[in-house]
Amino acid sequence: MRVAIADDSVLLREGVARLLAEAGFEVVATYGDAESLLVDLETRSVDVCVLDIKMPPTFTDEGLRAAAAIRARWPQVGVLVLSQYVELGLAVRLLADGVEGLGYLLKDRVAEVEEFVDAVRRVAEGGSALDPTVVSQMLSRRQADEDLGRLTPREHLVLEAMAQGLANRAIADRLHVSVRAVEKHVTNIFDKLGLVVGAHGDRRVLAVLRFLRR
Amino acid sequence: MDRRLGLLALTVAVAAGLGALALSSTGSPTPRGLMLADAPALALLIGWSFAGAGVVASVLRPHNRFGLLLYGTGLMWFTSALMASDSPLVFSLGLLTAPWWLGTFFHALHIFPGGRLDGTWPRRLVVLLYVDVTVVQALRLLFTSSADLPGCADCPRNVLLVSDQPHVADAILVVQQAGVGSLVIGGTLLVLARRWRAATAPQRRVLAPVLATGAVCLAVQAVSLAAQPASVRQSVGWVGALTFAAVPVSFLLGLLRQRLDRAAVGQLVVDLGEGREGDPLDALLRTALKDPSLQVAYWRPETQEYLDGDGRPFPMPARDEARAVTRVEREGRRIAALVHDPSLAEDATLISGAVAAAGLALENERLHAEVRAQLQELQASRLRLVEAGDRERRRFERDLHDGAQQRILAVLLLLNQLVRRADTDATARELAAEAKAELGRSLAELRELAAGLHPAVLTDHGLAVALEGVAARTPIPLELDVDLPRRVPQRVEVAAYYVICEALANAVKHAAASGVTVHVCERWDGDDSTMEVHVVDDGVGGLDAGPCASSGSGLQGLRDRVAALGGTLEVISPAGEGTRVRAVIPCG
Q1: Global ipTM
Q2: Got the DSSP string for B192-227?
Q3: What pTM was estimated for this model as a whole?
Q4: Residue of A156, A172, B206, B321 with fewest CB within 10 Å of its CB?
Q5: H or E stretch at B150
């Protein structure tokens, strides 16, 4: 899997590059700003881009804009946006055009190597990765919701994991249960929330996120 | 001219008039076309009114040459009476000086009311006329036999005659009257018309009567020069003479107006005494001095600058601007300046009277202006303080982001490597994992700290995005309605953000509210816009947000912040009825 990294901090750029290289990714190139990445994408074939949100020149939302540009021009390229802080408002804007091949994570997550590598891989394969903070913000906004209130604590955890973009296998690993058990939970959750069961993967994420943002 | 000298001048004028009358009415009835002989009353009226008006004008405005010229015109008016004499010498002197009054009369018209000849053309015209009535007149008399003069069959000998050349004399007469005369009259009419057009309202008030009669008079003169039949010429001449007599009268009218203006200053004293609150001082002075363009500038000794009534810096007119500045002093200190039409400066007593009457009020207003200026500076410095504080916090937050947080993260990544490499040594792995966890907590704490210093999302993405996060973190149902099509200035965003956060914190912590709505919008009024923030909860109310409040003390701090931006913060919190917080902050 080919990955390109754009982050204005050399330390992190190189750290993430080394980490992904060791995890078996082919790090095609690293960049200090979004503009040069966009220029290079014209000629380079890449599966996934890891972008910092704040980059030169204005250090505000260059990463966000680059993400939108990449998704518009090269829809097959996954984009994982890293941010110093995560905000629901930004997630909502980022996910407005669909969640396929899109990730939005707190920058600190790179230190949880396995989960980070998993998220990059998911996004590269067209899946999604949403930071737990954002998901919990979404859930807390729906605290008083009756439908959510009917979920068991375990189903709650499964819902959260689904919203983060995890597949059944990963959810099962995280909760130390069997895949079959997860599948059962998922069916229950969809029943209780009145959601139509999407086949799998990103459609499922979309259904869950749509529900949470309702 | 003092009064005694004026009295003397008047006596001389009266004597001159009576002497002229006596001279022209002695001897046989003369058909010499002398007005003094044909219409003595009118002739005396003209002469004396000029001389009298001249004396009055000189007394009132001693430094203005206008009065002297009027007086001179009046005196010289009588010299034509010398032509009635049977003595050849006196007769010839009369002939020579008869048109002299025209010179001073035109001169006076041109310099009224300022006392100076302004511009090339007026100067040329006046000089030309003086030459015409003195030199050219003398030249003509060198070639004119008295017998050739109209109605002068029995006149004495012209002693100036050198050679009797009727054709030469006629030619000179054409040049003198039809040529130079009409040129001067036409030119003067043009100059007066242009001055009228350029005049400001107060100038016109002074110019109007004199210019009107002067212009009619000149027009009549022009017609009489052109009219051929002697009868028409004579009757037009009569009209001219009557109008001419009115010229000094019109000037006296002007003087009377000035008296009325002084009465207006008296009214100013009354108005000030009554302390009419509604009318600002500058409006009262405008009325009193009849100059709608008048402005009052108050002196601020601290900064050595002038202020307007609202305490803002007052730009004094540049030198080339047609404005006059009168400084106002009180007990030797400069307190103000009146910026007014230059024509007001003509009558120094009028303006000094008004200034004396308004002195105390001016001093009061000056103090007000000074206080307003200080308030504005205070407001500006308060705003600068708030902005400086925000700037610092933003800088700290950014330093934390770009510095400490990035580094710790990089170290975390290195530790990961270390853990991976040290897979044989269990203790080392354990220690590294512990260090990792510790660093992770530090990172989280730093992030909290940075977010507390300054909400970076606000700077980076604006209020709407930031508020979605706030709404998500609020543990009670929150209805968020943000209508902001554009980014407003940072300080306004920050103030609105803090107001909302604080109001929400109150709703959750103190009001036990079960629901809250937040409404934010930008309202436009012309080119100015204000941001309106409403936070309404359904809690217990009774929030004390007064100056000595305890529960709402956070809001009190925000009230100061909002006030520093020129906005207002209202907290309405009746017990049992929920709390409404409303902030209005100008975006300008």
Answers
A1: 0.85
A2: HHHHHHH--HHHHHHHHHHHHHHHHHHHHHHHHHH-
A3: 0.65
A4: B321
A5: none
